[in-house]
Amino acid sequence: MAEMIEAFVYKESLSIYEKCICAATLFYILGLAVLEVSGKHLQYSKFWNLGSNKSSKSVVSSKVGMLIIYTPALFAGVSSFWIFPGGGIRFLMLKSAVTIHFLKRDLEVLFLHKFSGFFVVESAVIISATYFTAAAGFVYFHHQTRGLPEPTVDLKYLGAVLSLVGLSGNLYHHYLLSKLRKKDGKGYEIPRGGLFNLVVCPHYLFEITTFVGFSFISQTMFAYACAVGVAFYLLGRSHATRKWYVSKFENFPKNVKALIPYVF
Prior knowledge:
The protein has 264 residues and is mainly alpha-helical. The protein contains eight helices and two strands; from the N terminus they run ααβααβαααα. It is 63% helix and 2% strand. The two termini are 28 Å apart.
């Protein structure tokens, strides 16, 4: 079993410090997932105004909050081309995929999304730090593999395909969500079209697909840990989102799952 797993990952010689970063990143994101399932949500989107002490919380507009969470990660991606030039085709694919992903998210915030409500600053900082750590970690830990032999099973091209599928699917379903909003940008409706007919958060499903793609391009332990962590967090967030829709709409279709069609 161990030999089979080793075929899919670089044989990295990580320091204790680097191993701690990998473990801490995974368990931190898993902790956020547990909080989502237990009802203690990061406060943005539908959950921005939860809690009994709303008046004491610092908030910004949803657009500003979204730019806060994505822009540092975009900076990490862009700067990686200057900090770590070269590195071969796999490294170029990884740096490009990470940069394009977060550039897309910022462009969506600026030109596609329609917002209502606010973004609690504390939540924005937490998510921003998480995305920045992930983006910088993808690049740093892959840079550390220089000189090591390639994994026996090469997943980088499959990873590139998954990243493109994730990016395209996420963009399309964000477009569908933007078309739901009224001209005043307020209020929610039950999403329709695309995979919204099967799950309430297909954009999260494609976000997971994107991060799995990153991990397949990189094939480092850090990248795999991030993909697992993001998957579990978005599982928790989608579960909470479905509960919210069920509580707000009496006619919410029971056959529509949270994240995985027909399953969850």
